[in-house]
Description:
about 25% helix, globular, alpha/beta, 3 domains, Rossmann fold, binds zinc ion, 7-stranded mixed beta sheet
Amino acid sequence: xxxxxxxxxTAAGRLGLSIGPVIRAVHAVDAGSxxxxxxxxxVARLTFLGAARTVTGSKYxxxAGSxxxxxxxxxFQGLRELRRRNWDPLPVDPASIHAVVLxxxxxDHSGYLPRLVAGxxxxxxxxxxGTQDLCQIxxxxxxxLQEEDARQANKHGYTRHHPAxxxxxxxxxxxxxxxxxxxxxxxxxxxxxxxxLEFINAGHLLGSAFVRLRLEADGGGxxxxxxxxxxxxxxxxxxxxxxxxxxVLLLExxxxxxxxxxxxxxEELAEVIRSTVEQGGKLVVPAFAVGxxxxxxxxxxxxxxxxxxxxxxxxxxSPMATEALRYYVKRRRELDPDQxxxxxxxxxFRAVSSxxxxxxxxxxxxxxxxxxSSGMATGGRVLHHLKAVLPDPKNTVLFVxxxxxxxxxxxxxxxxxxxxxxxxxxxVRARVAKIDSMSAHADASExxxxxxxxxxxxxRTFLVHGEPEPLAALERAIASRxxxxxxxxxxxxxxxxx
Length: 498
Ligand SMILES: [Zn+2]
């Protein structure tokens, strides 16, 4: 309660009373005549701190009453202008955030956590148990890579910064992990004053979820953060769970303008493998260490089993992917029902552990399949393999996931004649192929299928996590098919809800 100006009754004064998040103040504007003015305030405010008109850096700040919750805490990746944002201070003091919630463990949704914690965030980070498992391998690895890249840049002098420093370290990553708090699917939980959380399976990655935040305040309603939307009828992961209602929806648009090719029962992959072997070449598959690797290995094993490809040495050259596979085996009950009958995919493949062994695989000339990360060829051991195979036309490099603008992967699929790796220009003479059907993101028709589950349209729908063209295409498609009004927020836009 507060008072401004002269005492009521003697002259116009302001007597105020805070009464919760909906009504900010009741003012006795003129106490003599008891004129009362009620000031309304929006129930909540949502600020888009990332993944607005781009596909990385997912971060959404929800402020409701006195509570501040950050949904997703991802790294910007790809173009330099985007990566630079990782170094800018957040427009909100990390220490003032009460809780973080993660939709899933991919770096573009979790990779800023070490920096947030180093910046003073001390609250809990709510996630599913599967996300906690995967973060335990993804985040320390990202810290090590950051440190290694800074070291390499300083050693070889290919940096504009003197000295180059890591965005965060492995130790920062471990500090962030200590704040993770696992929560089961579909188990609502109060996470901050007036805000309840529920995770719903999104079918995009082990542990992936839609995040429903329910606001207790009158007229508060609920907000569904779609995270990344999975696909229907794929091996490994279950279908995305249907959702019938949300007052506010945040929906990804990664493939909002595309339809994935129909399921070809692995034939495209079989063709790539057969033609590479016929030429006596090596096949390098850059794959996100967590997520795509499981599907690639599933198909290789299946094609071998059906004798549609020759048996080849298959190397999994990513310690992180090897570790992630263990969690997929451990949490098979959360995967597609088919997976619960099959043998775990770990038996057939050779996991490359040491750097020496990795070098030996790089140097060997005999035909083989090498699955290695990172998936967009932005770092990791796959770079050594690419350096070795790209100059020779008998080899093939096969991309199986989304390639963000500005990444080496994107340059290669766009037909670059040479790419820079470790400061060296490498000519591209190998075949570069791309299979879209293994994407973990719903395409335009799958997004529509999922939206078809809503019984009533959300009061507001925001399209996020997409580049401009897919965003515009999805906006048009939703307007014409469903008649929903859709907004495409700008980076750092802030809106009042509902
Ligand atoms: Zn993802």
